[in-house]
Amino acid sequence: MTDLNQKQERDQWGSKVGFIFAAAGSAVGLGNLWKFPYTAGQNGGGVFVFIYLALVLIIGFTLMMAELILGRTTQLGPVGAYRKLKEKWSWVGYIGVLASFLIVTFYSVIGGWILKYIVTAFQGGFNVTDVAILETTFTNFIGAPVEPLIYHGAFMLITLGIVMGGISGGIEKASKVLMPGLLIMMVVIMIRSMTLPGAMAGVEYLLKPDFTMLNMKVVLAALGQVFFSLSLGMGVIITYGSYLSKNENLVESSFYIPLLDTILALLSGLTILPAVFALGFDPAGGPGLLFITLPGVFAGMPFGSFFAILFFILVLFAAVTSSISLLEASVSLFVDEFKWNRKKATITLGVIAFLIGVPSSLANGPVMSDMTFINGMNFFDSMSFFAENLLLPLSGLLLAIFIGWIWGTDKAVEEATNSGQVKFGLAKAWAFIIKWVAPLGIGYIFFQSVLTLFS
Ligand code: PHE
Protein backbone atom coordinates (compact mmCIF):
# COMPACT_ATOMS: atom_id res chain seq x y z
CA MET A 1 0.00 0.00 0.00
CA THR A 2 2.71 2.42 1.00
CA ASP A 3 4.66 1.55 -2.13
CA LEU A 4 1.68 2.14 -4.28
CA ASN A 5 1.04 5.47 -2.66
CA GLN A 6 4.58 6.57 -3.15
CA LYS A 7 4.54 5.60 -6.78
CA GLN A 8 1.29 7.42 -7.29
CA GLU A 9 2.60 10.48 -5.59
CA ARG A 10 5.57 10.60 -7.91
CA ASP A 11 3.40 10.23 -10.98
CA GLN A 12 1.01 12.78 -9.66
CA TRP A 13 3.79 15.20 -9.03
CA GLY A 14 4.89 15.08 -12.64
CA SER A 15 1.46 15.85 -13.94
CA LYS A 16 0.84 18.41 -11.29
CA VAL A 17 3.79 20.43 -12.48
CA GLY A 18 2.36 20.26 -16.00
CA PHE A 19 -0.97 21.48 -14.76
CA ILE A 20 0.53 24.26 -12.70
CA PHE A 21 2.53 25.43 -15.71
CA ALA A 22 -0.55 25.48 -17.90
CA ALA A 23 -2.63 27.34 -15.33
CA ALA A 24 0.25 29.66 -14.54
CA GLY A 25 0.59 30.23 -18.28
CA SER A 26 -2.94 31.54 -18.29
CA ALA A 27 -2.46 33.59 -15.16
CA VAL A 28 0.93 35.10 -15.94
CA GLY A 29 0.61 37.52 -18.79
CA LEU A 30 0.23 41.16 -19.63
CA GLY A 31 -1.71 41.56 -16.40
CA ASN A 32 1.47 41.01 -14.42
CA LEU A 33 4.09 42.44 -16.73
CA TRP A 34 2.30 45.41 -18.25
CA LYS A 35 -0.76 46.23 -16.16
CA PHE A 36 0.37 45.70 -12.58
CA PRO A 37 3.19 48.28 -12.59
CA TYR A 38 1.22 51.05 -14.22
CA THR A 39 -1.95 50.42 -12.21
CA ALA A 40 0.19 50.58 -9.07
CA GLY A 41 1.73 53.78 -10.41
CA GLN A 42 -1.68 55.33 -10.93
CA ASN A 43 -2.94 54.32 -7.51
CA GLY A 44 -0.39 55.52 -5.03
CA GLY A 45 2.23 52.76 -5.38
CA GLY A 46 2.79 51.07 -2.03
CA VAL A 47 -0.76 51.44 -0.82
CA PHE A 48 -2.04 49.74 -3.96
CA VAL A 49 0.49 46.93 -3.63
CA PHE A 50 -0.49 46.47 0.01
CA ILE A 51 -4.20 46.20 -0.79
CA TYR A 52 -3.44 44.00 -3.77
CA LEU A 53 -1.46 41.53 -1.68
CA ALA A 54 -4.12 41.50 1.01
CA LEU A 55 -6.80 40.78 -1.59
CA VAL A 56 -4.76 38.01 -3.22
CA LEU A 57 -4.31 36.44 0.18
CA ILE A 58 -7.95 36.63 1.24
CA ILE A 59 -9.92 36.54 -2.01
CA GLY A 60 -7.43 35.31 -4.63
CA PHE A 61 -6.47 32.00 -3.08
CA THR A 62 -10.01 31.29 -1.98
CA LEU A 63 -11.62 31.87 -5.35
CA MET A 64 -8.82 30.08 -7.18
CA MET A 65 -9.60 27.02 -5.14
CA ALA A 66 -13.33 27.49 -5.54
CA GLU A 67 -13.04 27.55 -9.33
CA LEU A 68 -10.75 24.52 -9.43
CA ILE A 69 -13.17 22.64 -7.20
CA LEU A 70 -16.13 23.50 -9.38
CA GLY A 71 -14.29 22.43 -12.50
CA ARG A 72 -12.92 19.20 -11.16
CA THR A 73 -16.06 18.04 -9.47
CA THR A 74 -18.18 18.50 -12.59
CA GLN A 75 -15.45 17.89 -15.20
CA LEU A 76 -17.15 20.65 -17.21
CA GLY A 77 -16.57 24.25 -18.30
CA PRO A 78 -18.25 27.12 -16.44
CA VAL A 79 -21.74 27.02 -17.98
CA GLY A 80 -21.97 23.25 -17.79
CA ALA A 81 -20.48 23.19 -14.30
CA TYR A 82 -23.08 25.52 -12.81
CA ARG A 83 -25.84 23.80 -14.71
CA LYS A 84 -24.86 20.36 -13.51
CA LEU A 85 -24.92 21.43 -9.88
CA LYS A 86 -27.89 23.79 -10.08
CA GLU A 87 -29.78 24.15 -13.34
CA LYS A 88 -30.89 27.70 -12.64
CA TRP A 89 -27.35 28.99 -12.17
CA SER A 90 -25.94 28.31 -15.61
CA TRP A 91 -26.28 31.98 -16.60
CA VAL A 92 -23.55 32.82 -14.10
CA GLY A 93 -21.17 30.84 -16.28
CA TYR A 94 -22.08 33.07 -19.21
CA ILE A 95 -21.08 36.25 -17.34
CA GLY A 96 -17.55 34.96 -16.98
CA VAL A 97 -17.32 33.89 -20.60
CA LEU A 98 -18.60 37.28 -21.73
CA ALA A 99 -15.95 38.96 -19.60
CA SER A 100 -13.16 36.85 -21.04
CA PHE A 101 -14.36 37.57 -24.56
CA LEU A 102 -14.45 41.33 -23.99
CA ILE A 103 -11.03 41.21 -22.41
CA VAL A 104 -9.43 39.35 -25.31
CA THR A 105 -10.55 42.17 -27.65
CA PHE A 106 -8.25 44.72 -26.04
CA TYR A 107 -5.71 42.23 -24.73
CA SER A 108 -4.86 41.60 -28.34
CA VAL A 109 -4.30 45.31 -28.96
CA ILE A 110 -1.64 45.37 -26.24
CA GLY A 111 -0.26 42.06 -27.50
CA GLY A 112 0.14 43.87 -30.82
CA TRP A 113 2.21 46.57 -29.13
CA ILE A 114 4.52 43.84 -27.84
CA LEU A 115 4.88 42.44 -31.36
CA LYS A 116 5.78 45.89 -32.64
CA TYR A 117 8.44 46.23 -29.95
CA ILE A 118 9.95 42.88 -30.92
CA VAL A 119 10.24 44.14 -34.47
CA THR A 120 11.77 47.41 -33.27
CA ALA A 121 14.20 45.53 -31.04
CA PHE A 122 15.34 43.42 -33.99
CA GLN A 123 15.90 46.58 -36.01
CA GLY A 124 18.14 47.80 -33.18
CA GLY A 125 15.73 50.63 -32.53
CA PHE A 126 16.38 50.79 -28.80
CA ASN A 127 19.46 52.92 -28.41
CA VAL A 128 17.68 55.91 -27.00
CA THR A 129 17.78 56.75 -23.30
CA ASP A 130 15.92 60.02 -23.51
CA VAL A 131 12.50 59.39 -22.01
CA ALA A 132 10.94 62.25 -23.92
CA ILE A 133 11.91 60.66 -27.23
CA LEU A 134 10.85 57.19 -26.07
CA GLU A 135 7.53 58.63 -25.04
CA THR A 136 6.90 60.34 -28.34
CA THR A 137 7.84 57.22 -30.27
CA PHE A 138 5.38 55.22 -28.21
CA THR A 139 2.46 57.65 -28.32
CA ASN A 140 2.94 58.21 -32.02
CA PHE A 141 2.85 54.48 -32.63
CA ILE A 142 -0.23 53.65 -30.55
CA GLY A 143 -2.04 56.74 -31.79
CA ALA A 144 -1.58 55.92 -35.44
CA PRO A 145 -4.76 54.80 -37.19
CA VAL A 146 -3.42 51.81 -39.12
CA GLU A 147 -0.14 50.34 -37.93
CA PRO A 148 -1.28 49.21 -34.46
CA LEU A 149 -4.28 47.54 -36.09
CA ILE A 150 -1.99 45.43 -38.24
CA TYR A 151 -0.13 44.26 -35.14
CA HIS A 152 -3.41 43.73 -33.30
CA GLY A 153 -4.54 41.57 -36.21
CA ALA A 154 -1.28 39.64 -36.18
CA PHE A 155 -1.55 38.95 -32.46
CA MET A 156 -5.16 37.80 -32.87
CA LEU A 157 -4.10 35.52 -35.72
CA ILE A 158 -1.47 33.87 -33.55
CA THR A 159 -4.04 33.36 -30.79
CA LEU A 160 -6.66 32.10 -33.17
CA GLY A 161 -4.23 29.75 -34.90
CA ILE A 162 -3.27 28.06 -31.68
CA VAL A 163 -6.83 27.84 -30.36
CA MET A 164 -8.00 26.36 -33.65
CA GLY A 165 -5.55 23.50 -33.40
CA GLY A 166 -6.81 22.77 -29.91
CA ILE A 167 -4.51 23.71 -27.07
CA SER A 168 -1.56 21.57 -28.00
CA GLY A 169 0.95 19.79 -25.83
CA GLY A 170 3.59 21.90 -27.52
CA ILE A 171 2.52 24.98 -25.62
CA GLU A 172 2.75 23.12 -22.36
CA LYS A 173 6.24 21.88 -23.20
CA ALA A 174 7.36 25.32 -24.30
CA SER A 175 5.94 26.75 -21.07
CA LYS A 176 8.25 24.61 -19.02
CA VAL A 177 11.27 26.27 -20.60
CA LEU A 178 9.98 29.75 -21.32
CA MET A 179 8.23 30.50 -18.05
CA PRO A 180 11.34 29.89 -15.94
CA GLY A 181 13.24 31.76 -18.64
CA LEU A 182 10.96 34.72 -18.16
CA LEU A 183 11.43 34.54 -14.41
CA ILE A 184 15.23 34.56 -14.67
CA MET A 185 15.17 37.30 -17.25
CA MET A 186 12.95 39.46 -15.05
CA VAL A 187 15.36 39.07 -12.16
CA VAL A 188 18.30 40.15 -14.33
CA ILE A 189 16.50 43.21 -15.66
CA MET A 190 15.18 44.02 -12.21
CA ILE A 191 18.71 44.09 -10.80
CA ARG A 192 19.80 46.31 -13.63
CA SER A 193 16.87 48.63 -13.15
CA MET A 194 17.27 48.81 -9.38
CA THR A 195 20.92 49.75 -9.65
CA LEU A 196 20.28 52.78 -11.88
CA PRO A 197 21.02 56.05 -10.11
CA GLY A 198 17.89 57.29 -8.38
CA ALA A 199 16.12 53.94 -8.68
CA MET A 200 15.64 53.44 -4.97
CA ALA A 201 12.93 56.10 -4.95
CA GLY A 202 10.94 53.73 -7.16
CA VAL A 203 11.50 50.78 -4.87
CA GLU A 204 10.34 52.84 -1.95
CA TYR A 205 7.34 54.14 -3.90
CA LEU A 206 6.25 50.58 -4.59
CA LEU A 207 6.97 48.97 -1.24
CA LYS A 208 6.25 51.69 1.31
CA PRO A 209 2.51 52.19 1.61
CA ASP A 210 1.33 55.71 2.17
CA PHE A 211 -2.06 55.10 3.72
CA THR A 212 -3.15 58.68 3.30
CA MET A 213 -3.52 57.73 -0.37
CA LEU A 214 -6.02 54.99 0.45
CA ASN A 215 -9.45 55.43 -1.07
CA MET A 216 -12.17 53.44 -2.77
CA LYS A 217 -10.65 53.92 -6.20
CA VAL A 218 -7.47 52.18 -5.07
CA VAL A 219 -9.40 49.25 -3.61
CA LEU A 220 -11.50 48.96 -6.74
CA ALA A 221 -8.46 48.96 -8.98
CA ALA A 222 -6.75 46.37 -6.77
CA LEU A 223 -9.69 43.98 -6.81
CA GLY A 224 -10.08 44.26 -10.57
CA GLN A 225 -6.37 43.58 -10.91
CA VAL A 226 -6.57 40.49 -8.68
CA PHE A 227 -9.30 38.98 -10.85
CA PHE A 228 -7.59 39.95 -14.09
CA SER A 229 -4.16 38.78 -13.10
CA LEU A 230 -5.22 35.47 -11.56
CA SER A 231 -7.61 34.76 -14.48
CA LEU A 232 -10.47 34.56 -11.99
CA GLY A 233 -14.16 35.17 -12.55
CA MET A 234 -13.94 34.13 -16.20
CA GLY A 235 -14.53 30.45 -16.01
CA VAL A 236 -11.02 29.89 -17.32
CA ILE A 237 -9.82 28.32 -14.09
CA ILE A 238 -13.04 26.28 -13.86
CA THR A 239 -12.16 24.87 -17.28
CA TYR A 240 -8.59 24.11 -16.21
CA GLY A 241 -9.94 22.43 -13.10
CA SER A 242 -12.14 20.24 -15.25
CA TYR A 243 -9.03 18.65 -16.72
CA LEU A 244 -7.59 17.87 -13.30
CA SER A 245 -7.55 14.26 -12.31
CA LYS A 246 -9.37 13.19 -9.20
CA ASN A 247 -6.25 12.25 -7.28
CA GLU A 248 -4.39 15.48 -7.74
CA ASN A 249 -3.81 17.76 -4.84
CA LEU A 250 -6.05 20.67 -5.55
CA VAL A 251 -5.26 22.42 -2.30
CA GLU A 252 -1.61 22.72 -3.23
CA SER A 253 -2.31 23.80 -6.79
CA SER A 254 -4.50 26.63 -5.66
CA PHE A 255 -1.61 27.78 -3.56
CA TYR A 256 1.14 27.73 -6.18
CA ILE A 257 -0.66 29.46 -9.03
CA PRO A 258 -1.46 32.69 -7.17
CA LEU A 259 1.98 32.60 -5.57
CA LEU A 260 3.78 32.39 -8.91
CA ASP A 261 1.52 35.00 -10.41
CA THR A 262 2.14 37.41 -7.57
CA ILE A 263 5.89 36.92 -7.70
CA LEU A 264 5.89 37.82 -11.39
CA ALA A 265 3.76 40.91 -10.79
CA LEU A 266 6.06 42.13 -8.04
CA LEU A 267 9.15 41.44 -10.14
CA SER A 268 7.68 43.46 -12.93
CA GLY A 269 6.76 46.29 -10.59
CA LEU A 270 10.27 46.26 -9.13
CA THR A 271 11.71 46.37 -12.61
CA ILE A 272 9.58 49.11 -14.09
CA LEU A 273 9.00 51.59 -11.26
CA PRO A 274 12.65 51.99 -10.28
CA ALA A 275 13.38 52.72 -13.95
CA VAL A 276 10.51 55.20 -14.02
CA PHE A 277 12.08 57.14 -11.17
CA ALA A 278 15.65 56.79 -12.41
CA LEU A 279 14.76 58.06 -15.86
CA GLY A 280 12.57 60.82 -14.53
CA PHE A 281 9.26 59.61 -15.91
CA ASP A 282 5.84 59.97 -14.31
CA PRO A 283 4.76 56.87 -12.28
CA ALA A 284 1.13 57.67 -13.07
CA GLY A 285 1.97 57.73 -16.77
CA GLY A 286 -0.45 54.91 -17.58
CA PRO A 287 -0.40 52.02 -20.08
CA GLY A 288 2.81 53.22 -21.69
CA LEU A 289 4.98 52.66 -18.62
CA LEU A 290 6.54 49.37 -19.70
CA PHE A 291 6.93 50.48 -23.30
CA ILE A 292 8.55 53.79 -22.48
CA THR A 293 10.85 52.97 -19.61
CA LEU A 294 12.21 49.51 -20.44
CA PRO A 295 13.71 50.46 -23.80
CA GLY A 296 15.50 53.21 -21.86
CA VAL A 297 16.84 50.61 -19.45
CA PHE A 298 17.97 48.32 -22.27
CA ALA A 299 19.71 51.17 -24.05
CA GLY A 300 21.95 51.76 -21.07
CA MET A 301 22.76 48.09 -20.60
CA PRO A 302 25.62 46.02 -22.02
CA PHE A 303 24.15 43.76 -24.74
CA GLY A 304 21.05 45.92 -24.49
CA SER A 305 19.55 45.02 -27.87
CA PHE A 306 19.99 41.36 -27.18
CA PHE A 307 18.20 41.72 -23.84
CA ALA A 308 15.47 43.77 -25.47
CA ILE A 309 14.80 41.11 -28.10
CA LEU A 310 14.81 38.28 -25.61
CA PHE A 311 12.67 40.15 -23.13
CA PHE A 312 9.93 41.15 -25.53
CA ILE A 313 9.80 37.63 -26.99
CA LEU A 314 9.31 36.19 -23.52
CA VAL A 315 6.60 38.77 -22.81
CA LEU A 316 4.94 37.81 -26.09
CA PHE A 317 4.97 34.17 -25.08
CA ALA A 318 3.43 34.99 -21.70
CA ALA A 319 0.80 37.12 -23.43
CA VAL A 320 -0.07 34.39 -25.94
CA THR A 321 -0.47 31.68 -23.30
CA SER A 322 -2.97 34.02 -21.63
CA SER A 323 -4.80 35.13 -24.75
CA ILE A 324 -5.36 31.57 -25.90
CA SER A 325 -7.02 30.75 -22.60
CA LEU A 326 -9.15 33.90 -22.94
CA LEU A 327 -10.36 33.04 -26.42
CA GLU A 328 -10.63 29.33 -25.66
CA ALA A 329 -13.24 30.11 -23.01
CA SER A 330 -15.77 31.39 -25.55
CA VAL A 331 -14.74 28.94 -28.26
CA SER A 332 -15.35 25.95 -26.03
CA LEU A 333 -18.69 27.42 -25.03
CA PHE A 334 -19.81 27.56 -28.67
CA VAL A 335 -18.45 24.09 -29.31
CA ASP A 336 -20.00 22.50 -26.22
CA GLU A 337 -23.24 24.42 -25.87
CA PHE A 338 -24.16 25.39 -29.41
CA LYS A 339 -22.48 22.48 -31.18
CA TRP A 340 -20.44 24.60 -33.56
CA ASN A 341 -17.38 22.99 -35.00
CA ARG A 342 -14.15 24.20 -33.52
CA LYS A 343 -12.83 25.80 -36.66
CA LYS A 344 -15.96 27.81 -37.34
CA ALA A 345 -16.23 28.91 -33.71
CA THR A 346 -12.60 30.00 -33.52
CA ILE A 347 -12.60 31.95 -36.75
CA THR A 348 -15.94 33.64 -36.11
CA LEU A 349 -15.13 34.62 -32.54
CA GLY A 350 -11.57 35.61 -33.42
CA VAL A 351 -12.75 37.92 -36.17
CA ILE A 352 -15.45 39.48 -33.99
CA ALA A 353 -12.94 39.97 -31.18
CA PHE A 354 -10.57 41.63 -33.63
CA LEU A 355 -13.30 44.00 -34.80
CA ILE A 356 -14.36 44.97 -31.28
CA GLY A 357 -10.68 45.56 -30.55
CA VAL A 358 -10.41 48.12 -33.36
CA PRO A 359 -12.05 51.01 -31.44
CA SER A 360 -9.91 50.09 -28.42
CA SER A 361 -6.85 50.65 -30.54
CA LEU A 362 -8.20 53.82 -32.15
CA ALA A 363 -9.03 55.24 -28.71
CA ASN A 364 -5.31 55.87 -28.26
CA GLY A 365 -5.13 58.30 -31.13
CA PRO A 366 -6.86 61.34 -32.59
CA VAL A 367 -9.47 59.25 -34.41
CA MET A 368 -11.34 58.30 -31.25
CA SER A 369 -9.52 59.70 -28.22
CA ASP A 370 -12.19 62.34 -27.69
CA MET A 371 -15.09 59.94 -27.72
CA THR A 372 -16.09 58.95 -24.22
CA PHE A 373 -18.25 56.05 -23.11
CA ILE A 374 -18.39 55.12 -19.41
CA ASN A 375 -17.65 57.90 -16.87
CA GLY A 376 -15.86 60.06 -19.38
CA MET A 377 -13.47 57.23 -20.26
CA ASN A 378 -12.43 56.44 -23.81
CA PHE A 379 -13.44 53.17 -25.46
CA PHE A 380 -10.37 51.26 -24.33
CA ASP A 381 -10.71 52.28 -20.67
CA SER A 382 -14.47 51.77 -20.73
CA MET A 383 -14.10 48.20 -21.97
CA SER A 384 -11.52 47.47 -19.37
CA PHE A 385 -13.66 49.02 -16.62
CA PHE A 386 -16.78 47.18 -17.70
CA ALA A 387 -15.07 43.79 -17.85
CA GLU A 388 -12.69 44.05 -14.92
CA ASN A 389 -14.51 46.25 -12.46
CA LEU A 390 -18.08 45.15 -13.11
CA LEU A 391 -18.33 41.73 -14.75
CA LEU A 392 -15.45 40.02 -12.94
CA PRO A 393 -16.36 41.08 -9.41
CA LEU A 394 -19.99 40.20 -10.16
CA SER A 395 -19.01 36.77 -11.37
CA GLY A 396 -16.72 36.25 -8.37
CA LEU A 397 -19.45 37.38 -6.02
CA LEU A 398 -21.91 34.92 -7.50
CA LEU A 399 -19.33 32.15 -7.39
CA ALA A 400 -18.80 32.70 -3.67
CA ILE A 401 -22.53 32.83 -2.99
CA PHE A 402 -23.06 29.70 -5.03
CA ILE A 403 -20.44 27.66 -3.22
CA GLY A 404 -21.11 29.14 0.20
CA TRP A 405 -24.87 29.08 0.21
CA ILE A 406 -26.27 27.00 -2.64
CA TRP A 407 -23.99 24.06 -3.28
CA GLY A 408 -22.45 24.06 0.18
CA THR A 409 -18.93 24.37 1.54
CA ASP A 410 -19.01 20.82 2.95
CA LYS A 411 -19.25 19.34 -0.52
CA ALA A 412 -16.59 21.73 -1.75
CA VAL A 413 -14.17 20.77 1.01
CA GLU A 414 -14.92 17.11 0.37
CA GLU A 415 -13.89 17.62 -3.25
CA ALA A 416 -10.82 19.68 -2.37
CA THR A 417 -9.50 17.07 0.02
CA ASN A 418 -10.26 14.12 -2.26
CA SER A 419 -12.73 12.94 0.39
CA GLY A 420 -10.38 13.50 3.27
CA GLN A 421 -7.19 12.12 1.73
CA VAL A 422 -5.50 15.45 1.29
CA LYS A 423 -4.62 17.68 4.20
CA PHE A 424 -6.40 21.00 4.16
CA GLY A 425 -5.71 22.59 7.52
CA LEU A 426 -7.34 25.85 6.59
CA ALA A 427 -10.60 24.27 5.42
CA LYS A 428 -12.65 26.04 8.08
CA ALA A 429 -11.11 29.41 7.33
CA TRP A 430 -11.63 28.83 3.62
CA ALA A 431 -15.30 27.99 4.14
CA PHE A 432 -15.75 31.06 6.31
CA ILE A 433 -14.23 33.32 3.68
CA ILE A 434 -16.33 31.81 0.90
CA LYS A 435 -19.51 32.16 2.94
CA TRP A 436 -19.05 35.55 4.53
CA VAL A 437 -15.91 37.51 3.74
CA ALA A 438 -15.90 37.10 -0.04
CA PRO A 439 -19.58 37.83 -0.68
CA LEU A 440 -19.65 40.82 1.67
CA GLY A 441 -16.27 42.16 0.63
CA ILE A 442 -16.65 41.70 -3.10
CA GLY A 443 -20.30 42.73 -2.88
CA TYR A 444 -19.37 45.99 -1.22
CA ILE A 445 -16.63 46.77 -3.71
CA PHE A 446 -18.88 45.82 -6.61
CA PHE A 447 -21.58 48.09 -5.28
CA GLN A 448 -19.11 50.97 -5.08
CA SER A 449 -18.08 50.23 -8.62
CA VAL A 450 -21.68 50.43 -9.80
CA LEU A 451 -22.09 53.70 -7.92
CA THR A 452 -19.28 55.32 -9.89
CA LEU A 453 -21.45 54.85 -12.96
CA PHE A 454 -23.87 57.38 -11.55
CA SER A 455 -21.40 59.84 -10.12
N1 PHE B 1 -4.31 36.59 -16.23
C1 PHE B 1 -3.90 37.03 -17.53
C2 PHE B 1 -2.85 38.10 -17.38
O1 PHE B 1 -2.51 38.47 -16.30
C3 PHE B 1 -5.04 37.51 -18.35
C4 PHE B 1 -6.14 36.53 -18.40
C5 PHE B 1 -7.30 36.77 -17.74
C6 PHE B 1 -5.99 35.34 -19.03
C7 PHE B 1 -8.30 35.84 -17.73
C8 PHE B 1 -6.99 34.40 -19.03
C9 PHE B 1 -8.15 34.66 -18.37
O2 PHE B 1 -2.36 38.61 -18.35
Describe the structure.
With about 450 residues, the protein is mainly α. It has a single domain (about 15-365), classed as Hydantoin permease (Orthogonal Bundle). Helix content is about 80%, strand content about 0%. It is built from 17 helices and no strands. Helix 3 (about 45-75) crosses helix 16 (about 380-415) and helix 7 (about 145-165) runs antiparallel to helix 15 (about 340-360). The longest helix has about 40 residues, at about 380-415. The chain is globular, with a radius of gyration of 21 Å. The termini are far apart. Residues about 1-15 have low confidence and may be disordered. Phenylalanine (PHE) binds next to helix 1, helix 2, helix 10 and helix 14. The site of phenylalanine has 15 residues, from helix 1, helix 2, helix 10 and helix 14.
Short description:
By secondary structure, the chain is mainly alpha-helical. Helices cover 78% and strands 0% of the residues.
End-to-end CA span: 64 Å
Largest beta-sheet details: none
Uncertain runs are 1-14
CATH homologous superfamily identity: Hydantoin permease
CATH topology: Hydantoin permease
Strand content: under 5%
Number of strands: 0
Indicate the overall shape. globular
Rg over CA atoms: 21 Å
Overall pLDDT metric: 91
Order of helices and strands: HHHHHHHHHHHHHHHHH
- Measured as a percent range, the helix fraction is over 70%
CATH class: Mainly Alpha
Summing up helix and strand content along with how strands pair, one would put the structural category as: mainly alpha
CATH architecture: Orthogonal Bundle
> How many separate domains?
1
Give the cofactors and ligands: phenylalanine
Tally the helices: what do you get?
17
